[in-house]
Amino acid sequence: MKTKKQITDNIIKEINRNLIQIEDFVNTPKLKEAYSYLISNGGKRFRPIMTSLSCAMFTNDYLHAINQGAAIELLHNFTLVHDDIMDKSPLRRGKETIHHKWDDTTAILLGDLILGLSCKRLKIGLEPMQGMQAMNVFNSGLVEVCDGQGFDLDFENRSDITLSEYEMMIEKKTGSLIKVSFVIGGIVGNANNEELEKLAKVGNELGKAFQLQDDLLDIIGNQDEFGKKTGKDIIEGKKTYLIIKAKEKASKIEHIELLNKFFKNSGLSENEVPEIKKLFEELGIIDEIKALIFEKFEMVFKSIKEIRDNEYSEVLVDLLNDYKTRVV
User: Which of 84, 129, 263, 295 has a CA positioned 20 to 30 A from the CA of residue 238?
Assistant: First the structure.
């Protein structure tokens, strides 16, 4: 049995090789250049790793679902390219975004192109019924992530968002493609319907845990370690779990005034980030979100072991535990 690092390194190597091969199907010179730039722009390849390991839980072959993992990685990149246009983001992973390096038209075309390429790649190596099942899951995930983005945009102009609405949004926007990764890995591994339902639940809960981690790390994370400006969400006026929970719990006048200022001005200044961090601490929200993240990760670990308890489920749990320890 290879080590966790050897397995994940091999998966990433094969995914990258697969993505480079797909470039041969891009004929327009500008789009070929943009595609090559996009896939060489880093990324943890987390979703294809989850696809490969969820498949290996049933097949003991962690490279069996590489084509499907590459398809999901392309789908993920499609969402990022279009998100960057909507957010007018100049950088992604420390490098220029596609629309910033070229233009909006090129970015839109590239996004559309890689979505089509991902659909073609998804069915490679699958039996006809498997291919249909995988495509149904894939399409449902695409609809959900777009739906989640729509809710996220709607939330920008609202100050009355509830925690249940926020959880629904992150389940769609963040959790849907993680769910797709697990379920399609299971489909390639011939998991039964009950096992596929459990994999879907794992993906949903993991997506929520990751988004809650991102919300928390925005306020307590080390900028150098996590590559994200501390308080960026607060400065940009994003309604994260912490903000919604604080609005729900605040009773002191100074807390209410600071939160009202956040909503009225669609964010706070960089100088006010320590002040709202102190507010979160005084209301017990930071400890509360840490406990919630821990609970969701533990639920994920328990569910994975219930689906299969073997070498690859151990690797999967061990890998995800590395993510849990970032804040808990």
Answer: 295
Task: Report the CATH number of the 4-324 domain.
Answer: 1.10.600.10
Q: What is the mean pLDDT of residues 52-70?
A: 98
Quick: pLDDT tens for 112-157.
999 999 999 999 999 999 999 999 999 999 999 999 999 999 999 9
Q: What is the mean pLDDT of residues 272-290?
A: 97
Q: What is the mean pLDDT of residues 259-273?
A: 96
**What are the pLDDT digits (tens) for 199-212?**
999 999 999 999 99
What DSSP line would sit under 273-317, residue for residue? Answer: HHHHHHHHHHTTHHHHHHHHHHHHHHHHHHHHHHH--SHHHHHHH
Amino acid at 54: S
How far, rounded to the nearest angstrom, does the alpha carbon of residue 301 sit from its chain's CA centroid? 18
For residues 250 and 280, give the distance between their C-alpha atoms in angstroms, rounded to a whole number.
10
**Residue owning tokens 């390639």:** 188
The answer to whether residues 213 and 241 touch, using CB atoms and an 8 Å cutoff, is no
Would you state the pLDDT for residue 221?
85
Phi-psi region of 84 (alpha: psi -120 to 50; beta: other; left: phi over 0): alpha
> What value, to the nearest 5°, has the Cα angle with vertex 46 and ends 245 and 18?
150
Nearest to 195 by CA among 66, 30, 305: 305
Nearest to 170 by CA among 147, 197, 137: 147
